[in-house]
Each structure stands twice: as C-alpha cells, then as structure tokens.
Specification:
This protein is of the alpha/beta class. The chain folds into 2 domains: about 190 residues, Glycogen Phosphorylase B (Rossmann fold); about 170 residues, Glycogen Phosphorylase B (Rossmann fold, 3-Layer(aba) Sandwich), CATH 3.40.50. The protein is built from 14 helices and 16 strands. The strands form 3 sheets. It has an 8-stranded mixed β-sheet, sandwiched between helices. Strand 3 and strand 4 form a beta hairpin. Helix 11 crosses helix 13. It starts with a strand and ends in a 22-residue tail after the last helix.
Length: about 400
C-alpha cells in the first residue's frame, strides 16, 4: 500500500502524535508498505523508509514548540507524483487542509485521525470563547473524510455529541518489550528518590506545559509523609515548576527516552497523571506496562485505560482534594499497590502497537473499498462568528 501522511508536528518535537508516527513508520518499513510524510519546516528529512516533505511554517505564539504550516501549501504536485492509494491526515489543523484539498480534488480516499482535544486546551488556557468555534472547525475537516479515527471511546462519544461523522476507535499502543517491570534498576531508584530508596516513589511523566496541570502534584509532594515525587519531562513550564516544587522532595529529570525512560518508569511505585483533556494517554499505558498502578482523572481518553479500583484509581478531574486522598490511600497500602500494578500490567499486554496497527490497516482497507466520490472542492466553509460573552 502507498500512503501519504500529513501531520502538524514531527521530530525533533516529541509528543504522543510523534511517538505514534515513529512507531507507525517503523511498522510500514517492516511490512513493505511505501509512505511519504508532509510536515512543517524544521522536521528531519527521513524517518525509517519514509521521506519527509517539509513546508514553510511559523511558530505559534501560545505554543512556541508547535510550528504551523500554511493550509495553502503547494503539495499537489508531490502527492500526485507519489501516487498514493490513500491519504491519512493526522490531527489536521493547517497543513492537513492542504492534504484534504488534494484528496477531494482527485478523489483519493482520505482517512483523518483526531488526536488532540484543542478545544479542551482552549478552555484550560482561559480561552473558552473559542472552544466551540474550534470544535466546528475540526468538524468541518473531519466530516469531509471517508473515515475518522479517534484514540478512545471517551473521545468518540464526545465527538458524536458534536456532530462528527464516520467515527471509529483506533487506540494507541505501547512498546511491550521496552516498557516492563523487568527494567527496574537500583541506580534509577536511587536517583529518582533522591537517595531514599525505601520511600514510596510517585512518578509523573509528561510534557511540562500549563494544560498538564502539574501544580496539582504540589500538595502530594509537600504533605504526604514518606512520599517522594519524580517529574519526568520537559517543556515551556519547567523552570516555573522547578521554582514551585523547590522545597519539596521532588526530582526533575528533564526529557528521557529509550531505555532511560523505561528504567525510570520501572523505578516507581505508582503513577500519577493530572492531564484532563487527553484523547488517549500514551504515558498512562507505558506506566501500566511497567507494572505501576495509575491514579488519573475521570475525564479524557485515560478512562478507557484505568479501571477504577482495579488497575488504579480515578478522581474527579477538578478535585485536587480527591487526587490527594487517592495518592495517600495507595501510598499507604503496599499490598494494594502491588495488586493494582499487576492488574494494570495485564491490561497493558492487550495494548501492543501490533494490535493498534492491525486496527488501523483494517480501516485503511475499508476506506479503499468505499465507492469513490466525485471530485469536490473545499467550499462553503466559514468559521462560526466568535461572540463576546455577555456580562
């Protein structure tokens, strides 16, 4: 199969979308499929056997690590020269619109995947006035695709309520060889606990930005006796967070990858997550595969992963008090920690990348068998007018 991908983000930036694409391109190479990626400028030239066509982009003022390419990028000639069987738009926002135009104009089957709750982030960034228009924007794009993929049942239900059509769950995956309880190493245990290996170690892994709500972990680090906290990751909020957590038993590691990341997970006793608008939760399933019970909010795609009372605990997403109580409960019950960790590990074994890509290719095959639609243009598109809230 020949597949042209359009993404709004790729290496050197790292996030859940990029991790998924890296795993996918490795899989495509191993299975003998041919692929081409269209990405914003600043990306690398190749990944695995996938060449990357890079297009002029600019940094976004509210998200400096994210570059946005123009939706009128000249991609048509390269797409047609590649002769794809199918076009896959990954979280289409800007450059993805250019890919959608080509797909519609030349009747190429098009699959789109909804990976990020930008509307939810807008509310979290106190930009709620644009939340509904953002949903309408994405609905316009996705409802022109043949098939729309979402990472979780939670997200599917959310989008159905907003009028999105042709939705199918395509869950993410986890590298079960890399993430495992067997990766537990004394040196990482010592490093992440600040040398107090006998203490309970709570682990948090994520990009460090405001919408991840890392501040909710402060009372946990400050007020639960005998608990140590390790924050793994980097991002625009790291310096501020290091000041906030300065006088607590907290270790910041910066960004980790590969075996270092796997060993950091395995060094923990429990995993705490605070992001409330995740569509899947790669770090959550990585923690489960590493044998850790997970404490996570009862919102977003993580609810598909964390079985409350079995593989971990869910807390009301806007209740720091319930989060604190959940962590304190697990930290004080070694037997329950072990029991939930084992249950989470067992569930993670069903979340392999192979299973994920089997689901994806079943949807690709379905898209190829659908009746070809007549060439169409992107017409009659007007963003909803943003109204100021009444005082």
């Amino acid at each position: 199969m020949r597949i042209a991908y359009f993404t709004e983000t790729f290496l050197p930036k790292i996030d859940g979308i990029v991790i998924t694409l890296m795993q996918l391109f490795d899989h495509l190479q191993a299975e003998g499929h041919e692929s081409m990626l269209f990405a914003p400028s600043g990306s690398i030239e190749h990944y695995a056997a996938t060449p990357i066509s890079r297009h002029r982009s600019m940094k976004t003022p509210f998200y400096p690590e994210l570059r946005i390419a123009t939706p009128v990028a000249r991609v048509e000639k390269k797409v047609l020269a590649f002769k794809p069987d199918l076009i896959h738009l990954v979280n289409p926002t800007s450059l993805g619109i250019a890919g959608l135009r080509v797909a519609l104009k030349h009747s190429i089957p098009v699959v789109a995947s909804y990976q990020t709750d930008v509307s939810g982030f807008a509310r979290r960034w106190k930009m709620g006035v644009v939340s509904e228009p953002v949903f309408q924007f994405y609905k316009f794009i996705h409802n022109r695709a043949d098939i729309n993929l979402v990472p979780s049942n939670f997200t599917r239900k959310q989008l159905v309520s907003k009028g999105f059509k042709r939705l199918t769950v395509w869950p993410g995956g986890v590298d079960l060889e890399r993430f495992s309880p067997k990766k537990r190493m004394a040196k990482w245990r010592k490093k992440l606990t600040g040398g107090e290996e006998d203490k309970v170690l709570a682990l948090f892994v994520s990009r460090l930005s405001r919408e991840k709500r890392v501040d909710l972990l402060l009372p946990i680090a400050r007020d639960i006796p005998g608990l140590r906290l390790a924050i793994v990751g980097d991002g625009p909020d790291r310096k501020r967070l290091e000041r906030v957590f300065k006088d607590t038993p907290t270790v910041f590691t910066g960004y980790l990858r590969g075996e270092n990341l796997a060993q950091a997970y395995a060094a923990g006793d429990l995993f705490v997550f605070t992001g409330a608008e995740e569509t899947y939760g790669n770090v959550v399933v990585e923690a489960m595969a590493s044998g850790l019970p997970v404490i996570a909010p009862n919102s977003g795609g993580v609810v598909d992963l964390v079985d409350n009372g079995k593989t971990g605990l869910q807390y009301p997403s806007e209740s720091p008090e319930r989060l604190f109580k959940a962590v304190k409960k697990l930290a004080g019950d070694p037997a329950l920690l072990k029991q939930m960790g084992k249950a989470g590990y067992k569930k993670a074994q069903t979340q392999s990348w192979q299973n994920s890509f089997d689901t994806l290719f079943a949807q690709y095959e379905k898209a190829l068998k659908l009746p070809r639609r007549a060439p169409r243009d992107m017409v009659d598109f007007h963003l909803p007018r943003i109204r100021r809230p009444r005082k």
